[in-house]
Amino acid sequence: MKLKKIPMRTCVVTKEKYPKKELIRVVRTPEKTVIVDETGRQNGKGAYLKLSKEVILKAQKTKALERALEVTIPDSIYEELERKAQE
Question: Of the N and C termini of the chain, which has fewer Cβ atoms inside 10 Å?
Fold first, then answer.
């Protein structure tokens, strides 16, 4: 029996590989807006973050997400990510 391949993605902060379902995707849309992608299928350039408060705070402090998406990230996105990490 063939095993199903698990898609792996790299966290932009920790540089570790995780299964795609353990990460949250942040997307820069073609209109240059930034959104949190719940489905993992939004159109645009995406970056993955491990869903933990420490990683999200480190991403904000080091601007790793801004470098990955090449755009300024509003504080509201970080707040939304922190809320999702607490769920």
Answer: N
- Token reading at 82: 């922190």
**46 occurs within a structural domain:** yes
Q: CB under 8 Å to 73, separation ≥6 — which residues?
A: 26, 34, 60, 63, 65, 66
**Domain presence at residue 2:** no
Q: Would you say residue 30 lies in a domain?
A: yes
CA distance readout (Å), 30 to 7, 34, 44, 75, 76: 24, 10, 6, 20, 19
Q: Is pLDDT above 90 for 1?
A: no
Q: What is the pTM of this model?
A: 0.91
* Overall residue count recorded for the chain in this entry: 87
* pLDDT tens digits along 38-70: 999 999 999 999 999 999 999 999 999 999 999
